[in-house]
Amino acid sequence: MATPVQVIHNVREMQSLVLAWRRAGLRSGLVPTMGALHAGHISLIHAAREKCDRVAATIFVNPTQFGPKEDFSKYPRTLDADLAMLSEAGCDAVFVPDREAMYPSGFSTSVEPPSVSQPLEGVCRPGHFRGVVTVVLKLFGIAPTDASFFGHKDYQQARVIQAMASDLNVPMEVHICPTVREPDGLAMSSRNRYLSPEERQRALSLWRALERCRLQLACGEHRTAELAAAMEKELISGVDAIEYAVVVDPVTLQPIELVEQQAIALIAAKIGTTRLIDNLLLSTDPRVTTTDATAKPTSGNPSQH
Amino acid sequence: MATPVQVIHNVREMQSLVLAWRRAGLRSGLVPTMGALHAGHISLIHAAREKCDRVAATIFVNPTQFGPKEDFSKYPRTLDADLAMLSEAGCDAVFVPDREAMYPSGFSTSVEPPSVSQPLEGVCRPGHFRGVVTVVLKLFGIAPTDASFFGHKDYQQARVIQAMASDLNVPMEVHICPTVREPDGLAMSSRNRYLSPEERQRALSLWRALERCRLQLACGEHRTAELAAAMEKELISGVDAIEYAVVVDPVTLQPIELVEQQAIALIAAKIGTTRLIDNLLLSTDPRVTTTDATAKPTSGNPSQH
Question: Which domain of life is it from (chains A, B) (predicted)?
Fold first, then answer.
């Protein structure tokens, strides 16, 4: 039996625990989540355990990062299963605040996200990243660990958080860890629970589109417009709506004409009413393994900039 | 001879020093300044020394908190004298970054300040508090001490920073320390250096207006409109323009009709081209000493909210 994870609801109690770890000379890591945990989240706990003496997670379905027509109210809440998975993975503590603990009466500060937040998700989900960086900065203050761990599946989110933490000199490393996929290639996501069996099959077209993109690049196609067109061709057969399917600069997420060294392919699409995203790092160097299963986590120590 | 203060220009070096203090179990305090130090700043160093084992200051004339027509370029820079005063006061380290260290190429995150930033200075100096809270949050990240110390003279600024730190769960106490005055009552300010001898005399009308306000309250005048009118009457004889002279709620800085228990009188006025501010906490309880010389510093531990 794994030791049960310590569940904390109170801001001060969480802060005290993490500061006590620090005073004891223990290196600590943080994995912020919205719950509905799957193997992707658990891989972040494992990554944190590898680099740290103590690991904290947070579970909070943050209302301010959902648009008015988005799935906040129906977002899956599976706390008991989440706690069991965290315990099993060796997570030491999990912060599970209610809305009032995070946004008490009078709360009125927000963080205006960095420029990498503007394209793609920034266009499709106005205000989303303001909600994300504000809540993440709060969680960084509530659990002031040495390092934090985010998934590559939400690549733009991870880049936005890295840039925010760097711009604001947050004294914490921000690591991006590989996407975890189902055996058939579908990226793990809490929103996969929304898919019917038929939709689940069609959702595979995101992965197939990314793989086709990678293959075309390997065959010498460096023009991003052509690579995007190849992805769209694959997606059209499976998804109900393509929000974007692009190949862009992996740091700024700005458009590029040609893949010179590294680039990232990013997709957002709808299957029925479910919105899914996925991405794949691309490289023109055949020695660089571009499948995310074996991709090295990129890490950024904000204070190095 | 006092030990010379350690001067640090590099973000990482400053972060490392403060984190090393923390690892050594030392409690540390931070005094952010724009330099041109006077006895008011030094009182903050002393307050920090009383509560902490190690004290850091910062000197940075932050361009983003000045409006286009304000005095950024002519703001006094007196680094050698500042360092001598900090050494004499027993400050351990001072962070003196250049603009590039604070705002490197690509910097694009900002903090949208809390609602207490909106009235008064928020109206007179649009964008000022966005610049202030963004740079202060960065300094809190660069020097992650246990406590920080701000002057009561910039009362709204101090309240804005307290609210920001509370809203964002910054794990740091934010203390507001008493205003230090010249023997004749003029509040210490780096901008007093701009005043000609004749203007210096007229500048006293700010203090006289605040004292008159306090006296009227002591005589039973609780109506804020009447108290404000009394201040204006005093100011008119001395200053060249009144930006505001009000009695408001001391927590929210919102208008109130009557002084019920505590209130704050706040003034901004121009003497020639020099803009000065001053304020005085008011209380209807005669047992509460309302002169700031003996006022107790109010402290706020953000995580307590």
Answer: Bacteria
The answer on whether B118 is annotated among ligand-binding residues is no
Q: Which of A41, A46, A222, A305 is catalytic?
A: A41
Structural domains present in chain B: 6-177 (3.40.50.620), 190-283 (3.30.1300.10)
* A168 contact residues in B (CB cutoff 8 A): 109, 111, 134, 137-138, 141
Residue that is written with structure tokens 């999990």 in the block: A94
Beta bridge partner(s), residue B241: B270
**Nearest CA of chain B to the CA of A77: how many Å?**
25
- ipTM of this model? 0.93
**What is the DSSP code (8-state) at residue B297?**
P
B56's CB contacts (< 8 A; 6+ apart) are: B14, B17, B18, B28, B29, B30, B31, B91, B92, B93, B94, B95, B143, B145
What is the predicted pLDDT for the residue at A296?
Answer: 36
The answer to whether the beta carbons of residues B188 and B38 sit under 8 Å apart is yes
Which residues does chain A have with pLDDT short of 50?
290-305
Half-sphere exposure of B22 (CA within 13 A, CB side): 25
- As a whole number of angstroms, the distance between CA A30 and CA A142 comes to 11
Considering only the beta carbons, identify the residue of A15, A115, A134 that sits closest to B108: A115
What was the pLDDT predicted at A219? 96
Residue of A10, A58, A108 to mutate, testing the B interface (most B Cβ within 10 Å of its Cβ): A108
